[in-house]
Amino acid sequence: MCITKKEVDFLTKAEELATAFKELTGSSDMVNYGRLTEVITSILLGLVWNSGFKSKDATDKNGNPVELKSTTTSRINGTYNGLSVYENRDDFIEYLKNKFPDNTRHIFTRYEGGDLVEAYEMKNSDVLDIIIRKTAKDWTDGKHCVNRKDPRAGAKVCMTEIKKLGKKLELHR
Question: SS in 3 state form for 110-149?
Protein backbone atom coordinates (compact mmCIF):
# COMPACT_ATOMS: atom_id res chain seq x y z
CA MET A 1 0.00 0.00 0.00
CA CYS A 2 1.32 3.42 -0.93
CA ILE A 3 0.42 6.42 1.24
CA THR A 4 0.76 9.87 -0.25
CA LYS A 5 2.45 12.80 1.47
CA LYS A 6 -0.95 14.52 1.86
CA GLU A 7 -2.32 11.43 3.59
CA VAL A 8 0.69 11.26 5.91
CA ASP A 9 0.29 14.98 6.71
CA PHE A 10 -3.41 14.45 7.43
CA LEU A 11 -2.81 11.46 9.71
CA THR A 12 -0.08 13.36 11.57
CA LYS A 13 -2.37 16.35 12.14
CA ALA A 14 -5.25 14.06 13.19
CA GLU A 15 -2.96 12.44 15.76
CA GLU A 16 -1.84 15.87 17.01
CA LEU A 17 -5.47 17.01 17.28
CA ALA A 18 -6.45 13.84 19.16
CA THR A 19 -3.59 14.42 21.61
CA ALA A 20 -4.54 18.09 22.10
CA PHE A 21 -8.21 17.11 22.59
CA LYS A 22 -7.28 14.58 25.28
CA GLU A 23 -4.99 17.08 27.03
CA LEU A 24 -7.71 19.77 26.99
CA THR A 25 -10.74 17.63 27.89
CA GLY A 26 -9.43 14.43 29.45
CA SER A 27 -11.42 12.48 26.85
CA SER A 28 -9.88 10.32 24.15
CA ASP A 29 -13.05 10.28 22.02
CA MET A 30 -13.30 13.44 19.96
CA VAL A 31 -15.29 12.11 17.02
CA ASN A 32 -18.49 10.55 18.38
CA TYR A 33 -21.66 12.54 19.01
CA GLY A 34 -20.22 15.78 17.62
CA ARG A 35 -17.87 16.09 20.58
CA LEU A 36 -15.21 18.01 18.66
CA THR A 37 -17.67 20.69 17.55
CA GLU A 38 -19.10 20.80 21.10
CA VAL A 39 -15.65 21.64 22.46
CA ILE A 40 -14.94 24.20 19.74
CA THR A 41 -18.36 25.82 20.28
CA SER A 42 -17.83 25.85 24.05
CA ILE A 43 -14.46 27.58 23.69
CA LEU A 44 -15.75 30.16 21.18
CA LEU A 45 -18.89 30.97 23.20
CA GLY A 46 -17.26 30.97 26.65
CA LEU A 47 -18.94 27.78 27.90
CA VAL A 48 -17.54 24.90 29.93
CA TRP A 49 -17.79 21.65 27.99
CA ASN A 50 -19.04 18.56 29.80
CA SER A 51 -17.26 15.34 28.88
CA GLY A 52 -20.11 13.12 30.12
CA PHE A 53 -22.57 11.45 27.75
CA LYS A 54 -25.80 11.46 29.78
CA SER A 55 -25.80 15.02 30.95
CA LYS A 56 -25.75 18.50 29.52
CA ASP A 57 -23.30 19.24 26.70
CA ALA A 58 -21.92 22.33 28.42
CA THR A 59 -22.52 24.82 31.21
CA ASP A 60 -22.59 28.60 30.97
CA LYS A 61 -20.85 31.02 33.36
CA ASN A 62 -23.98 31.08 35.57
CA GLY A 63 -24.09 27.28 35.88
CA ASN A 64 -27.02 26.84 33.50
CA PRO A 65 -27.07 23.67 31.37
CA VAL A 66 -26.46 24.16 27.65
CA GLU A 67 -27.64 21.80 24.92
CA LEU A 68 -25.48 22.17 21.80
CA LYS A 69 -26.62 21.25 18.30
CA SER A 70 -24.41 21.67 15.24
CA THR A 71 -24.59 21.05 11.55
CA THR A 72 -22.37 21.39 8.49
CA THR A 73 -25.30 21.68 6.09
CA SER A 74 -26.14 24.94 4.33
CA ARG A 75 -29.20 25.45 6.57
CA ILE A 76 -28.82 25.68 10.33
CA ASN A 77 -30.87 23.06 12.22
CA GLY A 78 -30.72 20.78 15.22
CA THR A 79 -31.83 17.20 15.70
CA TYR A 80 -33.05 15.77 18.99
CA ASN A 81 -32.79 12.04 18.31
CA GLY A 82 -32.86 9.05 20.59
CA LEU A 83 -35.17 10.53 23.17
CA SER A 84 -36.42 7.83 25.51
CA VAL A 85 -39.49 5.69 24.86
CA TYR A 86 -42.47 5.99 27.15
CA GLU A 87 -45.75 4.15 26.64
CA ASN A 88 -47.61 7.15 28.00
CA ARG A 89 -47.27 10.55 26.29
CA ASP A 90 -47.59 12.43 29.58
CA ASP A 91 -44.64 10.45 30.97
CA PHE A 92 -42.62 11.35 27.86
CA ILE A 93 -43.38 15.05 28.32
CA GLU A 94 -42.36 14.80 31.99
CA TYR A 95 -39.10 13.10 30.87
CA LEU A 96 -38.39 16.03 28.49
CA LYS A 97 -38.99 18.58 31.24
CA ASN A 98 -36.58 16.71 33.53
CA LYS A 99 -33.97 16.25 30.78
CA PHE A 100 -34.16 19.93 29.81
CA PRO A 101 -34.94 21.98 32.96
CA ASP A 102 -36.37 25.50 32.54
CA ASN A 103 -32.92 27.14 32.70
CA THR A 104 -31.53 25.05 29.81
CA ARG A 105 -30.04 27.05 26.96
CA HIS A 106 -30.30 25.51 23.47
CA ILE A 107 -27.59 26.71 21.09
CA PHE A 108 -27.67 25.80 17.40
CA THR A 109 -24.51 26.24 15.34
CA ARG A 110 -23.55 25.86 11.72
CA TYR A 111 -20.01 25.11 10.63
CA GLU A 112 -18.40 25.51 7.21
CA GLY A 113 -15.28 23.41 7.17
CA GLY A 114 -13.83 23.96 10.63
CA ASP A 115 -15.24 27.48 11.01
CA LEU A 116 -18.24 28.38 13.15
CA VAL A 117 -20.21 30.68 10.84
CA GLU A 118 -23.61 30.95 12.51
CA ALA A 119 -25.04 30.50 16.00
CA TYR A 120 -28.51 30.99 17.48
CA GLU A 121 -29.95 30.47 20.91
CA MET A 122 -33.53 29.40 21.56
CA LYS A 123 -35.58 29.41 24.75
CA ASN A 124 -36.06 26.05 26.39
CA SER A 125 -39.86 26.42 26.29
CA ASP A 126 -39.82 27.01 22.51
CA VAL A 127 -37.61 23.97 21.87
CA LEU A 128 -39.74 21.73 24.09
CA ASP A 129 -42.92 22.95 22.37
CA ILE A 130 -41.44 22.01 18.99
CA ILE A 131 -40.28 18.58 20.16
CA ILE A 132 -43.61 17.83 21.83
CA ARG A 133 -45.58 18.96 18.76
CA LYS A 134 -43.40 17.02 16.30
CA THR A 135 -43.41 13.80 18.33
CA ALA A 136 -47.19 13.83 18.84
CA LYS A 137 -47.54 11.37 15.93
CA ASP A 138 -45.71 8.73 18.02
CA TRP A 139 -48.73 8.33 20.31
CA THR A 140 -52.35 7.45 19.59
CA ASP A 141 -54.89 7.99 22.35
CA GLY A 142 -51.96 8.69 24.69
CA LYS A 143 -50.31 5.30 23.99
CA HIS A 144 -46.95 4.79 22.26
CA CYS A 145 -47.61 3.41 18.76
CA VAL A 146 -44.35 3.45 16.83
CA ASN A 147 -43.37 0.55 14.63
CA ARG A 148 -39.89 1.39 13.39
CA LYS A 149 -36.42 0.01 14.01
CA ASP A 150 -35.58 2.70 16.58
CA PRO A 151 -38.82 3.41 18.45
CA ARG A 152 -37.40 6.33 20.41
CA ALA A 153 -38.96 9.71 19.78
CA GLY A 154 -37.04 12.35 17.88
CA ALA A 155 -37.59 15.73 16.26
CA LYS A 156 -35.69 18.26 14.21
CA VAL A 157 -35.72 21.99 14.90
CA CYS A 158 -35.50 23.53 11.43
CA MET A 159 -33.88 26.73 10.20
CA THR A 160 -37.22 28.58 9.95
CA GLU A 161 -38.03 27.83 13.59
CA ILE A 162 -34.53 28.74 14.75
CA LYS A 163 -34.45 32.06 12.91
CA LYS A 164 -38.04 32.96 13.87
CA LEU A 165 -37.86 32.04 17.57
CA GLY A 166 -34.13 32.23 18.25
CA LYS A 167 -31.67 35.00 18.95
CA LYS A 168 -28.61 35.28 16.74
CA LEU A 169 -25.39 35.13 18.76
CA GLU A 170 -22.41 37.36 18.10
CA LEU A 171 -19.33 35.40 17.09
CA HIS A 172 -16.11 36.89 18.44
CA ARG A 173 -12.73 35.60 17.37
Answer: EEECCEEEEEEEECHHHHHHHHHHHCHHHEECCEECCCCC
